[in-house]
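Appendix C: a fully annotated inverse folding record. The material below is reproduced so that readers can follow the format used throughout the book. The structure is listed first as tokens, followed by the designed sequence.
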């Protein structure tokens, strides 16, 4: 995977109230720590929830590691988001298939799990409706994958 001139990342899940806002918060925080704060990060959902805050459990799990996502709001994915993103990172193969079907683009699409050290290509399951410990488990996977993604981006600069 070659990443050149990445200035914006779009993270995609289903409702944009659990996984993608957690990943948005984590990536913004870690990019800032890595000196890559100029890379813009946004998130969206394939199933069109608009202007909803992340779930209580997503906010809680992130706050436990010092990241505040309470002010983020959900947005349905759009053509403009797809066009303006240099890199699109999805949680499941379903999301990638939806983006390809709706927007006919595949060249900048990856699973966040593609960056997992031990299981590249893994899908990150939806914690919606699950207890807080499941959100914490999903957040840990998001952090692991984000670290490797940032390593690839950092090597680019």
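Designed amino acids, in order:
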């Amino acid at each position: 995977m070659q990443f050149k001139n990445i200035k914006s990342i779009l993270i995609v899940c289903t409702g944009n109230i659990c996984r993608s806002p957690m990943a948005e918060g984590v990536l913004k925080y870690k990019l800032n720590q890595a000196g890559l704060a100029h890379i813009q990060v946004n998130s969206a959902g394939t199933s069109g929830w608009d202007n909803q805050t992340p779930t209580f459990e997503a906010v809680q799990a992130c706050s436990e590691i010092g990241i505040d996502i309470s002010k983020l709001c959900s947005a349905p994915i759009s053509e403009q988001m797809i066009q303006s993103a240099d890199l699109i990172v999805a949680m499941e193969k379903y999301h990638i298939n939806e983006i390809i079907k709706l927007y006919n683009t595949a060249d900048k699409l990856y699973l966040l799990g593609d960056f997992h050290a031990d299981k590249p290509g893994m899908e990150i399951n939806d914690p919606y409706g699950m207890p807080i410990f499941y959100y914490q488990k999903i957040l840990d996977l998001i952090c692991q994958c984000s670290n490797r993604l940032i390593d690839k981006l950092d090597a680019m600069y």
